[in-house]
Amino acid sequence: MELVTPDIGLAVWTLLAFLILLFLLTKFAWKPILTAVNDREQSISDALESAERAKKEMSELVADNERILQEARSEREALLKEAREMRDQIILDAKEQAKDEASRLMENARESINHEKMAAITDIKNQVADLSIDIAESLLRRELGDDAKQKEYIASVIKEIEQN
Asked: Are 150 and 144 in contact (CB under 8 A)?
């Protein structure tokens, strides 16, 4: 039971050793330990702040990347829309130009056909006139082969002219 009820001398010496140790620790070790703990606390706080800043910067970068991607998408859509409009306009212009060219060719063809038709009609008229003259000449030669018939024909023509 000696351990449960200590002797007074032992308690005094234990208290004296504790007070000397406390004085020495307070005098020499307490400030460096507190400084080390404070430095450690400060470095942990700085690391947490740095991590928080890095996290915030990352979220800002992600937001910027999303914004840039959205702008790129909208710009791509605008370019595609403009390209489609240009394609449609080019096609429309080409169709219009083809229609104009077809109209011009058709008009030229019509004019050419009319010229050919008129030339053919003129040629036919000339041939008919030549043929008529040949037939008339042949008939007149046969009918008016002798002088009596010629004089009789001339008299009838003069009579007809006088009546008109």
From this structure: yes
At 109, the amino acid letter reads A
Element containing residue 79 per DSSP (H, E): helix 30-143
User: How far apart are the C-alpha atoms of 145 and 131, rounded to whole Å?
Assistant: 20
Closest CA to 157 of 138, 140, 132, 133: 140
Return the DSSP state at 26. I
Work out the number of other CB atoms within 10 angstroms of the CB of residue 162: 7
Give me 153's structure tokens. 């024909």
DSSP annotation of 5: S
Alpha-carbon distance 17 to 23, whole Å? 10
Structurally, the chain folds into a number of domains equal to 1
pTM as predicted: 0.41
Full domain range(s) for residue 44: 8-123
What is the tens place of the pLDDT at every residue in 5-58? 777 888 899 899 999 998 998 888 888 888 999 999 999 999 999 999 999 999
User: C-alpha distances in angstroms, 106 versus 39, 93, 94, 96, 110?
Assistant: 98, 20, 18, 15, 6
Residue 135 resides in a domain:
no
